[in-house]
Amino acid sequence: MSQTYELKAETRERVGKGSSRELRRNGLIPAVIYGDKQAPLSIALSTKEVTMKIHAGGFMTTVAIINVNGEKIRVLPKDYQLDPVRDFTMHVDFLRVSKDSQVSVQVPVHFENEEKSPGLKRGGALNIVRHEVELNVSADNIPEFLTVDLTGLNIGDTVHISDIKLPAGATPVIADRDFTVATIAGRVMEAEEEAAEEAEGEAEE
């Protein structure tokens, strides 16, 4: 689980496009904290601090503390918008969470020990079906990533979600099937060569 961090914020009295543009001119971005059966809270955050957190990785899977005028609120980022041209943060939505909160998050999948996979050594390719897996998990137990060990996997082998160790209490949002996360596929050239050889053999017959 990633380390919790703190961001300082101030409440926003005014909302709307004009107010948001003014905030951005002053190095701030508009954000909203919602959930936990409380009224949404409009806040402003440092653009630089939030953008650094987003680019550092793990932003969407890390619980944060928002210090709003001295009140500390535990939150989980749920969405953010980037300017498509200038790549700076435009807006962030945060969900209030407690230690008992159950949340749904997209968790990245990392692959290790590629050099210990016989299939990859033979020239096979790692075909990643899911780069992320959506989990139902406690807000205090969100993994930074899930790990797939490729040791011993050969061409034709498949990695299912049941093959991945999940944190205690975590369950996949897709619960009705043991879905595929990755496969070890044969090389396209090999497949084409085999098909060509078969065709030649049939022609000779």
Automatic annotation (TrEMBL):
The keyword Transferase does not apply. One of its GO terms (biological process) is translation. Residues 7-94 form the Large ribosomal subunit protein bL25 L25 domain. GO terms for cellular component: cytosolic large ribosomal subunit. It comes from the Bacteria. Residues 103-185 form the Large ribosomal subunit protein bL25 beta domain. One of its GO terms (molecular function) is structural constituent of ribosome. Residues 1-21 are annotated as: Disordered. Pfam families: Ribosomal_L25p, Ribosomal_TL5_C. Residues 7-21 have a biased composition (Basic and acidic residues). Keywords: Ribonucleoprotein, Ribosomal protein, RNA-binding, rRNA-binding. This is one of the proteins that binds to the 5S RNA in the ribosome where it forms part of the central protuberance. Part of the 50S ribosomal subunit; part of the 5S rRNA/L5/L18/L25 subcomplex. Contacts the 5S rRNA. Binds to the 5S rRNA independently of L5 and L18. HAMAP family: Ribosomal_bL25_CTC. Belongs to the bacterial ribosomal protein bL25 family. CTC subfamily. This is Large ribosomal subunit protein bL25. It comes from Sinorhizobium terangae. The gene is rplY.
